[in-house]
Design a protein that fits this description.
heterotrimer; A alpha/beta; B mainly beta; C alpha/beta; B: mainly beta; Alpha-Beta Plaits; two-stranded antiparallel ribbon; elongated; C: alpha/beta; eight-stranded mixed sheet; 38% helix
């Protein structure tokens, strides 16, 4: 018997958006809610081609808004279908209400989000303001850094979501990834379907076993039902890791929840997320090391559940760290949203490594390797406990 | 009665027992009580149709009232009857009377 | 309309909407829920918009529903139902779903005329095989009687109080049937909880036509606290709405408009129409109306009947 690894490899030049569409096809998704928004649109265009060419046996629902996109996949998932939708920016904001309902109903929806800045002023360009606003919606949230990882992560996300019964989103850089072509190795689709067997779950609408979904809970029950979401989401980290390892064994690629670069002996670590930030950070690590700074970089591949133990372990013994956020936590205590999360993870574990909050790449403001080298230099100079708005004309 | 703990509750807030609202006896809401006088009832089915609670029970059988044979009779399930009085108000022969709840 | 039920004795006995729900005594929508589930039968998935019927029937851990039931939110019942219908379609193709299953939206006037209008329009335009049932009690009753796009002109609500400068709602009730019919669905009809044989036949007809595409049922379902009348008069108020011409019974069947009894008779012979005052005077929400205002509303009623009769004659 030949294994998936031994089978002939198919490598295509794909954008991250097309990679997402190919993953959806491989996963034999049943229902896809389609609504255009830049920079997401080419995902659902590609899926529509697959369906219209008979390559994917799915129903497309050409909804009239993102609110209805999420509502339609909630309905379809409640009927037992494997579902997909994709959105960005304002679209993610419009469906925000239903994101909470999807996790509350414990539906294994998978969604791709090429991350984009939020209005006003309107911007079609990338940053992570949209994704960060979904922080407390109860969704598993991956942030991928390459087209290959987008493809692999969407397939993994189905397995994780259908195991822990929570929705999952796979975010990545709008434009910088969504519209950039990279080589992507595709899996054998039969093998993907064996990796994603269809499973029964208790929360499905079937006339033979009529259940009520979406009930009205009073103070005597609401808290317990919501706590179940918290427990499932925190517990999903283990499943995310197991599925990633199993995927690695089957298809030859795995990622972990954090990606590290030269951290083993590092004095200073930059924590980043998304393809562009981490690409810059890695190059800056090499450049900084040439200047004698023992630099390292960490990429957050999983944002929810927050891999707090791993982050804390990495940052416990370094001299200082910085977090590069591509979003502003307006009016918050720390400039960037993920910086606040990292600091909380450290504080909860009694770790007081000094940190620097870097906000950059807002509305796709260009980020340069030199900017990241500068971050390492600032850390080495003892700068800490402040917010730096990089690339800003102040 | 102690309420179930986190792990004793089905996930997703689903309710798995259809029609479990029957555990909630709404009859306690009543201030007026419908009393059905079977001897006046003409078996028109109107009270049964219009009850918002589904508390008018249609009992099948052989019933003789004032020499007339009927295949049905109606009974009111006071466990759930909220005493709205639609049945009495709609009854074309005034066979249902609303009396104060004691 | 297909006449499946000739008399009340043909109506189904089995109850699929259980007692013990928490709707107010004399609730008009609760009567509708009983009949919707009875007639649609157990192979029906109900998608309920947020509203009175959702809150009063699903208080955890109890449910009045004996069919599969989903509530997502207020404005998206039609979208969620679209998803269920699409899921059933694909799953059936893949051998993962068997049997005929109805998908039935149940939404109030707030969830249909106002916040849910966009998703309803999307569902109708895309042609999903879903029956959408609007139970219309003419205001946001669940939150305490606020005006909706369905509230009639001059009606009192808590957000259109009867003040010194403005007395009740200023605007007219929205023509929701007109909006639905503009999507050219196979079938759309109005019904009243007072005329249950008519309602049940229309529901059966709609369910059958749902094989072709979306269908719509607009049910008038009076609310005792919201309309301010004694709770035993719910059915009487609904009946008066029909007999005064305030709420005409009619259907749109594959492009053809038909008036149904008793509206057909009222439209044909205006003398058979009861004065609108009979409908208005037993409701506290209209207690402040002047004769001139009643006359104005009556003119609207007559004009609407004439308009529908004209449509029916085409």
């Amino acid at each position: 018997m030949t294994t998936a690894l031994q089978k002939a490899r198919t490598v295509l030049a794909l954008t991250s958006n097309y990679a997402a569409a190919y993953a959806v096809k491989a996963a034999d998704v049943d229902v896809v809610a389609v609504y255009p928004i830049t920079p997401q649109t080419t995902i659902v265009e590609k899926i529509a081609e697959f369906v219209d060419d008979g390559e994917l046996n799915a129903e497309l629902i050409h909804v009239e808004s993102e609110h209805s996109a999420m509502s339609a996949v909630v309905g379809a998932a409640a009927a037992g279908a494997r579902v997909f939708t994709a959105t960005s920016s304002q679209g993610l904001e419009l469906m925000h209400e239903v994101l909470h309902i999807a996790s509350g109903l414990r539906l294994p929806i998978v969604m791709a989000v090429p991350a984009r800045a939020l209005s006003a002023p309107i911007s079609i360009h990338g940053d992570y303001s949209d994704v960060m606003n979904t922080r407390d919606t109860g969704w598993i949230t991956y942030i991928a850094a390459s087209a290959q990882e987008v493809y692999d992560t969407i397939i993994q996300a189905y397995k994780v979501a259908e195991t822990v019964l929570l929705p999952a989103m796979v975010a990545y850089d709008g434009f910088l990834m969504s519209h950039t072509t990279e080589p992507v190795e595709l899996n054998d689709e039969e093998e993907v379907r064996r990796f994603l067997p269809r499973k029964d779950r208790p929360n499905v609408l079937k006339p033979e076993k009529p259940i009520t979904m979406g009930a009205f809970a009073m103070p005597d029950y609401y808290y317990e039902i919501k706590y179940q979401v918290q427990e499932a989401l925190l517990g999903s980290l283990k499943v995310i890791e197991e599925v990633d390892r199993e995927y690695g064994r089957t298809f030859g690629r795995s990622y972990g929840v954090l990606q590290t670069y030269r951290v083993e002996d590092a004095d200073y670590i930059v924590v980043a997320y998304g393809g562009a930030s981490f690409g810059n950070a890695r190059e800056a690590v090499d450049a900084a090391r040439e200047k004698g700074i023992k630099a390292g970089a960490v990429r957050l591949r999983v944002f929810r559940p927050f891999p707090a133990d791993y982050i804390a372990k990495l940052l416990a013994d370094v001299k200082a760290f910085a977090v590069v956020d591509r979003a502003i936590a307006f009016g918050g205590p720390a400039g960037g949203p993920v910086f606040a999360e990292v600091v909380t993870a450290l504080w909860m574990r009694g770790i007081d490594t000094p940190g620097l909050s870097i906000v950059h790449g807002i509305g796709q403001r260009s980020m340069y390797v030199e900017d990241f080298v500068k971050i390492f230099e600032m850390l080495k100079d003892g700068e800490k406990s402040k917010v730096v708005y990089m690339g800003l004309r102040l | 009665m102690s309420l179930p703990k986190v792990h004793e509750i089905p996930i997703g807030g689903i309710i798995t027992e259809p029609g479990s609202s029957r555990r909630n006896p709404t009859g306690g809401w009543r201030s007026l009580k419908p009393v059905l006088h079977d001897d006046r009832c003409i078996r028109c089915r109107i009270c049964w149709m219009y009850c918002p609670e589904g508390t008018i029970k249609e009992i099948k059988g052989e019933f003789v009232v004032k020499g007339k044979k009927y295949q049905y009779k109606y009974e009111i399930d006071y466990t759930y009857c909220k005493g709205c009085g639609i049945c009495a108000h709609e009854c074309p022969v005034k066979a249902i009377e609303m009396v104060p709840e004691t | 309309m297909k006449v499946v039920f000739k008399t009340v004795w043909d109506l189904p006995a089995e109850e699929l909407f259980a007692s013990g729900h928490r709707a107010c005594a004399g609730c008009g929508p609760a009567i509708a829920m009983r009949w919707l589930t009875k007639v649609a039968g157990p192979n029906t998935i109900v998608v309920n918009a947020t509203g009175c019927m959702e809150v009063t029937t699903t208080q955890y851990p109890e449910t009045a529903w004996m069919v599969p039931y989903l509530h997502v939110a207020f404005e998206n019942a039609a979208a969620a139902a679209s998803g269920i219908e699409a899921a059933i379609k694909t799953l059936r193709r893949k051998g993962l779903w068997s049997g005929k299953t109805n998908v039935m939206v149940i939404a109030g006037d707030g969830g249909t005329y106002d916040i849910g209008l966009q998703s309803l329009s999307g569902m109708l335009e895309r042609g999903h095989r879903v029956i959408y049932v609007l139970y219309d009690n003419e205001a946001y009753m669940n939150t305490g009687i606020q005006r909706s796009g369905s509230t009639p002109k001059y009606a009192w609500t808590t957000t259109t109080p009867v003040g010194k400068a403005i007395r009740g709602k200023i605007q007219r009730k929205k023509d929701i049937m007109g909006i639905v019919v503009a999507h050219r669905p196979p079938y759309a009809a109005t019904a009243s909880i007072s005329n249950l044989v008519d309602l049940s036949n229309k529901l059966k007809t709609a369910l059958e036509y749902t094989e072709e595409g979306p269908t719509f049922l607009h049910i008038l379902a009076p609310c005792p606290p919201g309309w301010r009348y004694p709770e035993e008069r719910t059915v009487e108020v609904a009946r008066l709405a029909v007999e005064t011409g305030y709420f005409p019974l009619w259907e749109y069947d594959h492009g053809k408009v038909r008036l149904n009894p008793p509206t057909s008779a009222i439209a044909a012979d205006p003398k058979r129409r009861r004065p609108l005052k009979e409908f208005l005077k037993i409701q506290g929400r209209f207690a402040h109306l002047t004769d001139a205002e009643i006359e104005e509303l009556e003119k609207d009623v007559v004009a609407n009947l004439e308009y529908l009769a004209k449509l029916a004659s085409l």
